[in-house]
């Protein structure tokens, strides 16, 4: 029996992407006028229904008065191209001077594959999911691992059955573990190293050997 790979669900990937995003592309469709694309600042909320801000002078403000249903498109987490959130934008509390604030009432969510194929996420799963707690430190930890501990990661992969692996590159870090791109005789494949006892809420909960690699302050 193949081992169970623990990793973020599509809903968790999408919620993490939303929590990390500071801007999105707002797409209006279905109005008498042609659809518009507007880059807007966004602010995540605990329920996954973000706030959107528009300049009062934006033509999109007038469109929303008659056609409030929009698509908010965010940069997607690997390997996906985008996260699309669809629903009406409803005016809410006053924004800063010269701007208007809206709250998205989410009707559907989906990941967009590199081919453009949408991957629907059940709304209940999206709303119940939480952003990954390691998202704020993941990028720095991955860079650190790649720069100073590639050999340690390679040894770890080989010790777990990857005898044919020639080199590894860390690609993602989340509460479940570390994802690597592993180079072998047949090309590049995806490998996951689980955190024993995971998922974790912070790096202090990672086992000592991995925590040392992730949090040490190596120098050349």
Task: Describe the 3D structure.
The chain has helices spanning 10-20, 59-66, 123-128, 135-148, 150-159, 208-215; strands at residues 23-28, 36-43, 51-55, 69-75, 82-91, 99-104, 108-112, 118-121, 167-174, 177-184, 187-194. It is an alpha+beta fold. The protein folds into 2 domains: 10-128, Electron Transport, Fmn-binding Protein, Chain A (Pnp Oxidase, Chain A), CATH 2.30.110.10; 135-215, Alpha-Beta Barrel (Split barrel-like), CATH 3.20.180. A hairpin with a 5-residue loop joins strand 7 and strand 8 (118-121). It is elongated, with a radius of gyration of 21 Å.
Could you give the topology of this structure?
Layout: H1 10-20, E1 23-28, E2 36-43, E3 51-55, H2 59-66, E4 69-75, E5 82-91, E6 99-104, E7 108-112, E8 118-121, H3 123-128, H4 135-148, H5 150-159, E9 167-174, E10 177-184, E11 187-194, H6 208-215
Could you tell me the mean pLDDT? 90
CATH superfamily of the largest domain: Electron Transport, Fmn-binding Protein, Chain A
Overall body shape? elongated
What class do helices, strands and sheet pairing give? alpha+beta
Q: Could you spell the SSE succession in H and E letters?
A: HEEEHEEEEEHHHEEEH
Give the % helix.
25-40%
> What's the architecture of the largest domain, going by CATH?
Roll
Tell me the quaternary state: single chain
How much of the sequence is in beta strands?
25-35%
Low-confidence stretches: none
Largest sheet, in brief, is: 6 strands, antiparallel, barrel
What is the compact description of this entry?
By secondary structure, the protein is an alpha+beta fold. It is built from six helices and eleven strands.
């Amino acid at each position: 029996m193949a081992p169970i790979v623990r990793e973020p669900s599509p809903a968790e990937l999408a919620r993490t992407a939303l929590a990390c995003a500071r801007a999105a592309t707002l797409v209006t469709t279905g109005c008498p006028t042609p659809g518009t694309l507007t880059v807007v600042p966004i602010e995540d909320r605990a329920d996954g229904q973000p706030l959107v801000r528009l300049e009062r002078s934006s033509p999109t403000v007038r469109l929303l008065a008659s056609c409030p249903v929009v698509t908010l498109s965010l940069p997607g987490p690997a390997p996906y191209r985008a996260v699309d959130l669809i629903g009406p934008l409803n005016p809410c509390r006053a924004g800063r001077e010269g701007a208007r604030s809206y709250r998205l009432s989410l009707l559907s969510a989906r990941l967009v594959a590199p081919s453009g194929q949408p991957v629907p996420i059940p709304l209940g799963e999206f709303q119940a999911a939480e952003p990954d707690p390691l998202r704020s430190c993941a990028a720095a930890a991955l860079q650190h691992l790649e720069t100073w501990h590639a050999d340690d990661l390679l040894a770890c992969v080989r010790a777990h059955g990857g005898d044919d692996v020639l080199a590894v590159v860390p690609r993602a870090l989340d509460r479940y573990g570390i994802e690597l791109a592993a180079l072998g005789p047949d090309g590049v494949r995806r490998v996951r190293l689980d955190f024993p006892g995971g998922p974790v809420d912070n790096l202090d909960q990672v086992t000592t050997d991995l925590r040392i690699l992730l949090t040490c302050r190596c120098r050349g």
